[in-house]
Amino acid sequence: MGDSSMFKVFLRLRNSKNAAKGDQEIYKKDGSEAYTLEEDEPATLVATAPESSETHKNSMRTHSLSVQKFKFSKIFLPSTSQAELFESTALPLLEEALNQENNALLFTYGVTNSGKTHTVQGPKDNAGVLPRSLDLIFNTLGECLDSGAQVTRPHLQHPRFQHQAEVDVLPESPQ
């Protein structure tokens, strides 16, 4: 998944609730490693079924693999700060959208208690992706308004929207 990919998929790892902070800590279940990161293949996570799981037991009976590899655009370790995550994921999307180069969508996905709210909202003293994104958007628009620049709705290139003309979203100022 290189930079030319239409979609980018990021993974943010977090330590288990019982683990000490630090990148060397690997989540363990039943004494076996649940996942490791490939050193020779960047952004690849190798997941191993725990020995107590049905997947592992079935793989032993059928002589199949209980290991799965997952590739991502980038993997963020538990020590990654909110600012680093924002700068690597949301900031490039926002810059393209604000420069009217591309539409953008950023969403989080994960099981309950996997860290989605922490990533999106962040704690009070360390804002997540959403507050940082809104700050950038409103500060950028504020700078445009302060400088007197026109903020317009970009003309959409999709044939479905070609009948729509560019519309000025700011009222004309009385002279």
Draw up the topology in text.
Layout: E1 10-12, E2 28-29, E3 32-33, E4 35-37, E5 44-48, H1 54-62, E6 67-71, E7 74-76, H2 82-88, H3 90-98, H4 116-120, H5 129-147
Short description:
The chain is an alpha+beta fold.
- End-to-end C-alpha gap: 53 Å
Biggest sheet strand order reads 4-5-6
Average pLDDT over all residues: 75
**What structural class do the secondary elements suggest?**
alpha+beta
Q: Share of helix among residues?
A: 25-40%
**H/E topology pattern:** EEEEEHEEHHHH
Features:
175 residues; alpha+beta; three-stranded antiparallel beta sheet; two-stranded parallel ribbon; 28% helix
Describe the model:
The chain has 175 residues and is of the alpha+beta class. Helices cover 28% and strands 13% of the residues. It contains 5 helices and 7 strands; from the N terminus they run βββββαββαααα. It has helices at 54-62, 82-88, 90-98, 116-120, 129-147, and strands at 10-12, 28-29, 32-33, 35-37, 44-48, 67-71, 74-76. The strands form 3 sheets. The protein has a 3-stranded antiparallel sheet, with no helix packed on it. A two-stranded parallel sheet has the order 1-7. Strands 2-3 form a two-stranded antiparallel sheet. Helix 3 runs parallel beside helix 5 (129-147). It is elongated and about 80 Å long.
